[in-house]
């Protein structure tokens, strides 16, 4: 029987591998209007953590249910089809679950990938996939960087953060990444190309570290983390600053959310703070992926990923990603 990773219990605070279980599930039947994909890659996305809590669920997604496959973005190949638009052999990206096989009807962010020879498949789940697209939309469409801007990115060493830093640099900005460890900060500067990086390990006083790195203040903050870091950055804005709210990873496991305390700064600095969901821009995905592909080809953008092999490794991979033990995009590859 095929396998899936299910939610074994609702996480209490920090996610643990024991919150998940690998279970055997029946092979799904393919009815008229549906098609079957054999999944090749799982994307490990921090955002899904928010919908794993007991009682979670909002206008965007339903909360996850116990003993059901954990929701995820996947990449798979069509192996059986009763849907005219999804022929056997097509490679598709979809929002479904951590399962070896999925039956789909073409809805829920499903699209056929136009792959380019020579581009490895995993790139379509990272730089050329929802991660890269999220980074692009948040930075270019919401943040609107200007040459010479000072740009700060939180969770800079993660999937979205590594792409945002490179895009901002290519737009002529001065980039500062916020991360957990000294080793990751070094990697961000030496490998990813940030101009500077601040780690919580070496500089627990973020306020002081930012004042030292950017004495003139911050033009654009791309926030993946929320909470205390967001409040600190809000106190160091330049006039007409933009705060892009992409994620709030520090809040997904918190018992009570941190209050946002520095809103007055938005007024006096004439700043704009705006959240976005990448899925609202689905019509622009092909054009954005073309742009990201061109940048990859030019060498302006590099893909950074950490791959785990086999469905059994999925719980570990997700926990590593959530706990900052991974670098760049975290993926699980399947046979
Ligand atoms: N709005 C959208 O449409 C959209 C789409 C996709 C993702 N997102 C959001 O974007 C953010 C990044 O997602 P991702 O999938 O690329 O994950 P990710 O950044 O690859 O992984 C999570 C990283 O967050 C950092 N982190 C974890 N716990 C933290 C804490 N308590 N405080 C500060 N940093 C912490 C760690 O990086 P360091 O070790 O570097 O600190 C960790 O590696 C998430 O918040 C996600 O919800 C939003």
Automatic annotation (TrEMBL):
Q: What's the source species for this entry?
A: Luminiphilus syltensis NOR5-1B
Q: Which SMART domains match?
A: PKS_ER (SM00829)
Q: Which InterPro entries match?
A: ADH-like_C (IPR013149), ADH_N_2 (IPR041694), ER (IPR020843), GroES-like_sf (IPR011032), MDR_fam (IPR045010), NAD(P)-bd_dom_sf (IPR036291)
> Would you say which domain of life the source belongs to?
Bacteria
One GO molecular function term of this record is: oxidoreductase activity, acting on the CH-CH group of donors, NAD or NADP as acceptor
What is the organism lineage in this UniProt record? Answer: Bacteria, Pseudomonadati, Pseudomonadota, Gammaproteobacteria, Cellvibrionales
> Know the name of this protein?
Alcohol dehydrogenase, zinc-binding domain protein
Q: Pinpoint the Enoyl reductase (ER) domain residues.
A: 13-332
UniProt keyword annotations, A-Z: Oxidoreductase
Q: Record's SUPFAM superfamilies? A: GroES-like, NAD(P)-binding Rossmann-fold domains
């Amino acid at each position: 029987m095929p396998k899936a990773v299910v939610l074994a219990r609702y996480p209490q605070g920090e996610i643990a591998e024991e919150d998940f279980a690998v279970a055997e599930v029946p092979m799904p039947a393919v009815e008229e209007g549906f098609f079957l994909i054999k999944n090749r890659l799982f994307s490990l996305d921090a955002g899904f953590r928010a919908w794993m809590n007991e009682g979670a669920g909002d206008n965007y997604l339903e909360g996850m249910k116990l003993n059901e496959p954990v929701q995820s973005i996947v990449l798979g190949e069509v192996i059986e089809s009763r849907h005219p638009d999804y022929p056997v052999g097509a490679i598709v990206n979809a929002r479904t679950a951590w399962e070896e096989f999925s039956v789909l009807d073409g809805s829920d962010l499903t699209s056929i990938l136009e792959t380019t020879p020579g581009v490895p498949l995993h790139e379509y789940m990272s730089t050329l996939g929802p991660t890269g697209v999220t980074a692009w939309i948040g930075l270019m469409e919401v943040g609107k960087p200007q040459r010479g801007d000072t740009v700060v990115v939180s969770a800079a060493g993660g999937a979205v953060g590594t792409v945002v830093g490179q895009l901002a640099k290519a737009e002529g900005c001065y980039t500062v990444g916020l991360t957990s460890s000294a080793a990751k900060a070094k990697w961000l500067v030496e490998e990813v190309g940030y101009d500077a990086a601040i780690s919580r390990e070496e500089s627990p006083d973020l306020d002081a570290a930012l004042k030292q790195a950017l004495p003139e203040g911050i033009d654009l903050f791309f926030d993946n983390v929320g909470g205390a870091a967001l409040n600190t950055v809000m106190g160091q804005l330049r006039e007409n600053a933009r705060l892009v709210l992409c994620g709030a990873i520090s809040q997904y496991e918190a018992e009570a959310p941190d209050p946002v305390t520095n809103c007055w700064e938005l007024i006096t600095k004439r700043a704009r703070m705006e959240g976005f969901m990448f899925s609202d821009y689905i019509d622009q995905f092909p054009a954005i992926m073309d742009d990201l592909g061109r940048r990859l080809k030019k060498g302006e953008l590099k893909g950074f990923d950490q791959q785990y092999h086999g469905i059994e490794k999925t719980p570990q991979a997700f926990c590593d990603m959530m706990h900052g033990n991974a670098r760049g995009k975290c993926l699980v590859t399947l046979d």
